UniProtKB/TrEMBL annotation:
PANTHER family in alphabetical order: BLR6218 PROTEIN, OXIDOREDUCTASE WITH IRON-SULFUR SUBUNIT
Domain 2Fe-2S ferredoxin-type: 1-76
Domain of life: Bacteria
Cross-referenced PROSITE patterns: 2FE2S_FER_1 (PS00197), 2FE2S_FER_2 (PS51085)
Protein name listed in UniProt: (2Fe-2S)-binding protein
Disordered: region residues: 155-179
Keywords tagged on the record: 2Fe-2S, Iron, Iron-sulfur, Metal-binding, Oxidoreductase
Xref: InterPro entries: 2Fe-2S-bd, 2Fe-2S-bd_dom_sf, 2Fe-2S_ferredoxin-like_sf, 2Fe-2S_ferredoxin-type, 2Fe2S_fd_BS, Beta-grasp_dom_sf, Diverse_Oxidoreductases
UniProt key word Cell wall biogenesis/degradation: no
Transferase among keywords: no
Pfam families: Fer2 (PF00111), Fer2_2 (PF01799)
Amino acid sequence: MTKFTVNDRPVQYRLDPETPLLWALRDASNLTGTKYGCGNGDCGACVVVVDGEAIRSCLVSIAEVEGRYVTTIEALSRDRSHPVQQAFVAEQAVQCGFCTPGMIIAASVLLRKNSDPSDAEIDAAIRNLCRCGTYPRVRAAIKRAGRVMRRQETIAAAPPPGISPEDAAKDVPALTPAE
């Protein structure tokens, strides 16, 4: 049994220890914000935070994260108030949305370390692939989120979701407890 912490909650998985973290999060924990893109670490759709570092969860086994802390997009901000989330909406950096969770997670790690990154630092930290080509807007969103974090600007772009995850789960048969 593999044990670690996901989104501030201790978890234990009865899965093969070599199971990629991505599949444990998506299939066993139903944390589907972390996306499967390529399966070989190239696209960045599966980025999560492990002990403060952005990692590609398709490349890491659950055995490798034993005893560590994992944060997914679901825990970044339940009400979408995180500056990176707000800035992505304000700068219209979201197109289809598939790559967005990985980019937002990677950007949040970058900005926690450096709230005023250069273009080169953003390019080095955000190596995610976006088929919609929103890179200029992603860079603008990251810079704007940095200004918000430095308290130089405010944003009121993304409204809260209007429904709690628990209430949303009531409408999804697969997440409804069996009677």
